[in-house]
Amino acid sequence: MYTPVFILFLSLFYALQPCSAAGASDWRSRSIYQIMTDRFARSDGSLIAPCDPKERRYCGGTWSGITKRLDYIQNMGFTAIWISPIVQQISGETYEGEAYHGYWPQNLYALNPHFGSEQDLKDLVNACHARGMYLMVDVVINHFANQGEIVKYENFVPFSNERFFHSRCPIDWGNQTSIEYCWMGDGFVTLPDINTEDPQVIDTWKKYLNSAVSQYGIDGYRLDAVRNIPKPVWSDITRSVGVYMQGEVWDKNPNIICPYQEHMGGLHNYPFKEMATTVFTTPGGNLADLVEVAHQMQIQCKDVTLFGLFMENHDNPRLGSFTNDMARLRNLAVLNILTDGIPIVYFGQEQALAGSLDPLNREALWLTRYSTTNNLVPTFTALNNLRNYIIKSKSNAPFVSTLATYSLLGNNAMSVRKGNVVLVITNSGQGVNTDVVVEGFGAGVELVDVLACRVMHADGSGRLKVTLVGEPIVLYPASLLTGSGICSM
Ligand SMILES: *[C@@H]1O[C@H](CO)[C@@H](O)[C@H](O)[C@H]1NC(C)=O
User: Fold this and answer.
1) Are 376 and 461 in the same domain?
2) Residue 19: its pLDDT value, please?
3) Any signal peptide, and if so, which residues (predicted)?
4) Is the pTM of this model over 0.85?
């Protein structure tokens, strides 16, 4: 007779468990797969439903679609997902299309019905947790969205009055005050700028962010448009919400980005992404420029290992739009996963999709049939597997918090040493031979290139001579791979 009571007790116990409340150091060991919810997977599992990114319309991706495709993500070794903003948006078609991306919020207390029900969202979070994966939700705190010139404040929940907003002015992007107080958007979709300095507004945001964490089980937030809100407001918000938050400051200058880390867990590493993309997709790109940016991020930022390490996202042209050389893309994949920071791979990057500027970089992934061959899936899988194994094996100093050292190897190659991992990468391009000598190994040590599963040996002076053929090499000591399953060891 006590069984039902016991079960009730158990379910209460689990329901009342604090959600994982994942902090910065928990996230540092993760590898994130970034999803645009509308474009990743549909509830019906369709592989043919048409989707033309140019039209900027909803294509039917949902939270339950993601839940059904978690195998695809987890099999590549990702341990977290980042999904589009979840809240209700402006509805209907505008001159700039529909709000399929989630960056046109209108009601904080309702979910975007295009993405599913509250239960669908909870099911997705629970499915992630059951696999030991985290879920990060994108959130827009800076603005609400309004269709047309005349702002209908009464449509906004809960900021349903003009007094919750800054007065209207166009942003002068060369003036930080203007960036923080003026409005984004245009005459078709206006983005009224929320007055985040109002204590009542901040209080509402803190309560919302905390309650969404406990209600849905969210493990972290991705903060949109961080540069459009004053820094002290961010401190106030991040101090009172107990999960890791990673912010977007879209700038390639470490001087601009680094100061923001005093106010939140981490940011997207835009400086590194911009430079890596430039020097690895442009023939003759100067690798010294990348070494310099990486160094500046290490010395100017509080902790670059808490930054998001990414090469593509929903706002920038895909790498495949700059080059169709798979060797170049694989070199970038290596940097994407195994140097300083929390790796973030934008959905479709593993398929080498080639969409250029927004909205073309938001292709429906189902049209690739989630293929796992003849693309970058095997590469990302091998890279994540190595990183996850090193994190789990704890066989040496914590890999994720050890800073990388970058060295040039002539004009077209470089090495990145992080803990016991040595990346040897080149921007020569597919099939072009580049002889390099990598120094600093133990005498005669046996090394495995985990991408090609090839064994190599350093010479008696700890040097490794190797000819790159445009492809990257990822070296790890063979002795530390015993029992790992990596390269059948
Ligand atoms: C910067 O923008 C603010 C807000 O619009 C404005 O008051 C100020 O005059 C601007 N400063 C300069 C130097 O243009």
Assistant:
1) no
2) 47
3) 1-21
4) yes
